[in-house]
Amino acid sequence: MLLACGGTGGHLAPGIALAQRLRSRGSEPLLLVSRKVVDARMLARYPELRFRAGRGRGFGPGWIDRLLFAPSMVIAFLDACWVVARFRPDAIACFGGFMSVGPALACWLVGVPVHLHEANLRAGKAIRALAPLATTIHAPPSAGLSGPRVRPGGFPLRAEMRAVDRAAARQALGFPADGRLLLVVGGSQGAAALNRWAEGFAPELASRDCHVLCLTGPGGVDRTDSHGARIARYLPFCDRMAEAYSAADLAISRAGAGTLAELAACGTPAVLVPYPRAADDHQTANARAREAAGCAVLVRESELDALRALTLRLLSDTEGLARMRAALVQAHRLNRWEELVDAIDGVSAKEVSA
């Protein structure tokens, strides 16, 4: 199996989860990832998985990125053709982003079934462009994709992504067991606005008996501040996200589909601050759905001035946090993604038996 899943944590994490499940069924997955640092860091925890750094680059906001996008896609396609010819996959699963285009085209041209996965409530450009080539498309009903090939799709979660004991999680991360803990996470790329907010708010939180764990992203701050008996820790990268979610009483987070699925799996209430420049504003759509379900509260980045008072109110509202946790349990129960595993594994089994 080929899994085209690199470029961001939101694409790579479900690819890792699918690879774990396929390996448990006896299949041989190869992950096609990007050359970004975040991909290498995430995969370092999974030495049992095979992966290959492919070619290509995103259609970024800068004119240089846009100028180089087309030639990079040609190179990515040729590189993917070489991989397909050598690896001879039975099927490919693509998770969106620039890393999906070349491999999907290369597989489709030689008759390898192409399976697409879209986790956000608004489908991304790559998934929309590749939809005509797909054997199956696994996506939420509101993603704007239709037709007989479309299947309901949840978010594949890595085997270790589940709630762990709070005290054990605190100990693993180096935090005292007492006091509350606020987790601030801006996704795999970090969020400068949330980082600045956390640094400015940490002393006040400490005075109110609350620790801070802020994941600053690649190139971000890496330090630990002591505020009396309370700690504010800033990490560019954390490979123990289940512990981070489980240790926290509340999270301040972006609203990518992967983060939302992980928050639900670990039962962590959250204030969601969607990335305002996300493609098609899909993070806002994701956050609105979670807020409507009672799992989180939505705050726009332009409204960060109101975030202090809201955070303090939520941290002191024990009953409100309990209601959010109950809603998260239900959201996690609805996150079903076995059909994606069955689709890609079933196609392979038929071809092998033939």
CATH class of the largest domain: Alpha Beta
Structural class: alpha/beta
Q: What is the CATH T-level topology of the largest domain?
A: Rossmann fold
Mean pLDDT: 91
* Total count of domains: 2
Give a written overview of the molecule.
- This protein has helices at 9-24, 37-43, 63-87, 98-109, 125-130, 166-173, 192-207, 241-247, 257-266, 282-292, 307-316, 318-333, 338-353, and strands at residues 2-4, 30-33, 50-53, 92-94, 114-117, 136-139, 150-152, 180-185, 210-215, 223-227, 230-235, 250-253, 270-272, 296-298.
- The protein is α/β, with parallel strands linked by helices.
- It folds into 2 domains: 2-156 and 337-353, Glycogen Phosphorylase B (Rossmann fold, 3-Layer(aba) Sandwich); 166-333, Glycogen Phosphorylase B (Rossmann fold), CATH 3.40.50.
- The strands form 2 sheets. Strands 3-2-1-4-5-6-7 form a 7-stranded parallel beta sheet, with helices on both faces. It has a 7-stranded mixed beta sheet with strand order 10-11-9-8-12-13-14, with helices on both faces.
